[in-house]
Design a protein that fits this description.
With about 300 residues, the chain is α/β, with parallel strands linked by helices. The protein binds flavin-adenine dinucleotide.
């Protein structure tokens, strides 16, 4: 019996269901506070937990509910998305039930011990590991495992969550929209990123223009956030957001390992750089060798011309 904690609207949760299926046996899902995607998951049973005091994401509360449901149904494996929230909650689940957490898994083979493949060191190596545990607590690396087509909808079981005040101390109480709004980096189908080569905060104007023309999001490298040109919300990479767009356009980005760790999920990469030896060139599908201050406005102008405006 495997239990998957779902973050509604997060594709990586669906990838966790694929990983759970590979363990064999029935797959149950748990959603906290909402049943909006319950019929789309294609698992045997969806547990929908609610509590009057739970008005936003609360990692301790989610972990307690997850551990309680896992106990009740006798789950031998508990899985979630390897996102910030998924890892946050599953670390707490593991601590509650006294088991190790294996994060960033991309393949599992059932058995005792469980055989795992997981991504380590910011994506620079794959680890083959054996997990000795009573119950497996796993998160799936984002955008590596394919999402299975959903099976037929299973039954839905309501769960009245039992929580104490202490479980609700840390909770999302308010949301502040990111400056600029628009498409979120993690979900964008097109991401146009500027690196140190952009030269300044003001230098991002053509990057923003191209992203907006393509209905995409603006990203940046850590060199840019360290310089204070953009907020950390825009950072792509190991210590930023992991993205999986249809097309990724890094401009003036060298392609350090820690940056590539965040954009590996991109289907295609179009790099703009003045240096043909830059590491980004070796992972790019297409490249324009040139000054981004000329190339990016030229791409935008050509798109406008072809669209007739
Ligand atoms: C623990 C750790 C975590 C990290 N996490 C991240 C992370 O999450 N994300 C991240 O990005 N980095 C991360 N880094 C930093 C990473 O190692 C690099 O330092 C960083 O990615 C470099 O940013 P950059 O490519 O913008 O700058 P640079 O490496 O300085 O590259 C600038 C590039 O711009 C090109 N260029 C210059 N001028 C132009 C121009 N006019 N037109 C076109 N091209 C031009 C240059 O040829 C060069 O390739 C991390 C580092 C550590 C140690």
């Amino acid at each position: 019996m495997n239990l998957v904690l779902i973050q509604p609207g997060d594709d990586v949760s669906l990838q966790a269901i694929t990983l759970a299926r590979s363990l064999g046996g029935p797959v149950h899902a748990l959603i906290v506070g909402s049943d909006e995607v319950a019929s789309e998951l294609g698992v045997d049973v969806v547990h929908v937990a609610r509590h009057d005091g739970l008005t936003g994401f609360a990692p301790d509360a989610h972990a307690r509910i997850c551990a309680d449901v896992a106990d009740r149904i006798g789950a031998t494996a508990i899985l979630a998305a390897g996102t910030e929230r998924g890892n946050d909650v599953m670390a707490r689940v593991a601590a509650r039930i006294g088991e190790p957490l294996a994060a960033n898994c991309i393949a599992v083979t059932p058995g005792q011990p469980l055989a795992l493949t997981r991504i380590r060191w910011g994506g620079s190596l794959l680890e083959e590991a054996r997990l000795h545990c009573g119950r497996a607590v796993l998160t799936v690396a984002p955008h590596v495992v394919a999402t299975d087509p959903a099976g037929s909808p299973g039954s839905v079981a309501d769960v009245a969550a039992e929580l104490d005040d202490a479980d609700l101390v840390v909770m999302v109480r308010d949301r502040v929209a990111a400056a600029g709004g628009g498409v979120s980096l993690a979900d964008a189908k097109v991401v146009v990123t500027g690196g140190r080569g952009v030269g300044s905060a003001d230098g991002f104007a053509p990057i923003e223009d191209l992203a907006s023309l393509l209905g995409g999001a603006v990203g940046c490298s850590r060199a840019v956030t360290m310089a204070g040109w953009r907020s950390h919300n825009d950072q792509v990479g190991q210590t930023g957001t992991k993205i999986a767009p249809e097309i990724y356009i890094p401009c003036g980005v060298s392609g350090a390992t820690q940056h590539i760790a965040g954009c590996k999920g991109a289907k295609r990469i179009l790099a703009v750089n003045t240096d043909r030896e830059a590491p980004i060139m070796s992972v790019a599908d297409y490249a324009v060798l040139g000054d981004l201050h000329e190339v990016v406005p030229a791409i935008a102008a050509e798109i406008r011309r072809r669209r007739g405006g």
